[in-house]
Amino acid sequence: SLQGVDIRAEIDRLRKERNAVILAHYYQEPEIQDLADFVGDSLDLSRKAAETDAEVIAFCGVRFMAEVAKILSPQKTVILPDMEAGCSLEDSCPPEQFAAFRAAHPDHIALTYINCSAAVKAHSDIIVTSSSAEKILSQLPMEQKIIFAPDKNLGAYFNRKTGRDMLLWPGACIVHEAFSETELLKLKALHPDAPVAAHPECPAYILDHADQVGSTRAILDFALSSPARTIIVATEPHIIHQMEKAAPQKTFIGAPGADGNCNCNMCPYMALNTLEKLYLSLRDLTPRIELDEATRLAAKAPLDRMLAMAS
Ligand code: 13P
Ligand code: SF4
Question: Which residue minimizes the CA distance to atom 3 of ligand 2?
Answer without folding.
Answer: 267
